[in-house]
Amino acid sequence: MNLHFSASQWRLLIAGVALAALVIGLIVYQSFELAEADNMWDAITGAPDWQNILFVDALIGVSVVLFILELRGDSMRILLTVGMALLFGFFMTAFFNLDAADKFVRGNFEVRILSDDDSPVDLSYEQDISGAFNNPDDPITEGRYSFLGAEGDKVTILAYAIEPESGLDMQVALLDESGAVVAEATEADRRVQKQYGDYVQSETDAAMRDVVLPADGLYTILAQPEGDTELQAEFGVALLSDHDSAAGLIYNGQAVEDIFNREGDTDPLKQVDYTFIGGEGDTVTLLAYAKRANVPVDLEVILYDEAGNKLAENFDANDEQVEAYEELKSTRDSIIESFVLPATASYRIHVQPQPLDLSTKLDETLDETVHAYDAFLLGPLSKLNRWMDWQRDAITLIMLGLAIAIVFRAEQFSLGAEGQLYLGALVAGVIGLSFGDVPRALLVPIALFSAATVGFLWGLLPGALKAYLDANELVSTLMLNTIAVKFYEMVITDQLTPPDAGFSASDWIPENGLLAPVITVEQNSITIAIYILIALILFSWLLIQRTPLGYEIRMIGANIKFADYGGVNTKRTIMLAMAISGAVAGLAGAHLALGVHRKLLLTISIGLAFEGVVVALLARNNPLVVPFTGLLYAYLRAGAQIMEREANISAEVVRIIQAVVILLITAEALVTFFQQRQVRRRGSGGESGDKQDRSLTPAEGGVHG
Q1: DSSP letter string over 290-347?
Q2: What is the largest CA-CA distance in the chain?
Q3: Which of the 8 DSSP states describes residue 232?
Q4: Rounded to an integer, what distance in angstroms lies between the CA atom of residue 347 and that of residue 299?
Q5: Which domains are present in the chain?
Q6: Which residues contact 56 (CB under 8 A, 6 or more apart)?
Q7: Do residues 401 and 615 touch, judged by C-beta distance below 8 A?
Q8: Closest CA to 321 of 307, 313, 333
Q9: pLDDT tens digit sequence for 212-259
């Protein structure tokens, strides 16, 4: 990084500072939830560790400035590419939300009839009713309940004492329209008690099982006490059948319910009809409503007479009706209020979701997509604990991006950071678990140094294979990843998992073995890893730009043949580049074990190192740009997870959108990387070759390299 600025660089600096100020302002405003605060400064200073939070936000601003200064014109191209990628992701989200309006035609609903008049019918199939014999307020000595039955229907009628210890002995009879007895019973045998235990519980109850109705018409159930007719006791009557009731609804009875367009149903219910028996002059209110307030199904209801003539209809309730009827959840519910029936007859209630028009579909698609993208773009900043999750993820990704950038600058396409991360985490975690009594000031540096050392050695191995055996570094590092990960899993499973653990993971690492927290919000912490990261960024930049080894790495990256001809020990340099990269990746593993999870999990990283490749490529392998690209990539990861949780976007859709966004914003960097790699490998002489070599000199390689 050149500290002597030209006029154009001063302009870049001003633009970078302005952009950084906007970014910091947005982060502070959102994460401290200042929109809801009466006094913004009090809201900031009232947060725990607010000074350190602002310090980290300032570091984010510095990363923005470095991004602008280091990449210059390329920074604008990257930002525009990110913007185009996010726009493309928006349209993809809209595509997957084209069925968003289907929620208005899908869901659980109920239908009910209310009336102040007595219903001609008291019961429907699968319903029960209760009463009390010889109640002083309403003394009755028998219960008469009517229902509409169809010829051939098989019904079971139960009459029972609500409280078995009351001594009530029941008898029940079924009468047809003429009053003739169809069937009767005075007891309930043990088989009936076992089958219908929710109702009958003793032989003194009465049950008629599987009575076949002889004709269509109204039937009456007559329930009476047998023996002591003066006994005061509560009783119940249940009408059970496997057939559909001829009269599905009764006044003030239980609501009937069903589900429109159930997901996964091969023949979903799209509309439904219910019948009821009404009396001439009866005033009824018909309700069709969502079963729960969070079900947005939009209903319409139509009332037909026996001949099929439409008598009334309704598509939406008004606010006053929603307030007046507790059953109604919203104005999407439907109500036919206070309708006077013209005759004693059978009536039909038709209920269906309101048909969707194109405008509704488009509006709902846009609303759902905006909601999803609001969660995607602002979700990681909406609360301090989410901001913390973003920062912890970013720290790991930036470390891995630095590790990848170092080895990529030597033009070695090494993908060994995953294995180095696992081994670094394992060594740091084992030391923390084994020496928990050692003071933190001594134990943590030892654990970090050990993690870096094992990463260094594991990175040195493929470097040696490449330098001395010309082994392909891509293949060797991938194979070494498998060895490291499987070894890690074996140790966790066989050695470190406690016998009583419910899943494969070590014990919690003692406090002395953990990285000290600098910010703690709701038991989430950002640790001193933030300072280690700053040191690693400076170390990586100084290594690449200000040391003889860094010069050799850049020489090899620019033209390995020219470097070899110029006296550079290319074998040693390749080995050291891979080993130093491994050391940084090992520290990333230590951060996961000692600073994030605080224990060794079986899957402590799921491909994080490969995402570090994206971070490095986005940064053009520039250590000073890696912080910005790491923060950007971690932000996209966090936003995608929040969008999945809060916007009801399926995990698969979120992954597709995230992959497309990352693909678009990395495509240019990836193509540039391989184009430069191809040009450098030509190494041909002549004027053309000289021009190519001069365009890729070590001082310019990797953008401001």
Answers
A1: ESSTT----EEEEEE-TT--EEEEES---HHHHHH-TT--STTSEEEEEEEPSSSEEE
A2: 121
A3: -
A4: 19
A5: 7-96+382-695 (no CATH), 127-241 (2.60.120.380), 259-356 (2.60.120)
A6: 391, 519, 526, 530
A7: yes
A8: 333
A9: 999 988 899 999 998 878 888 999 999 999 987 776 788 888 888 999
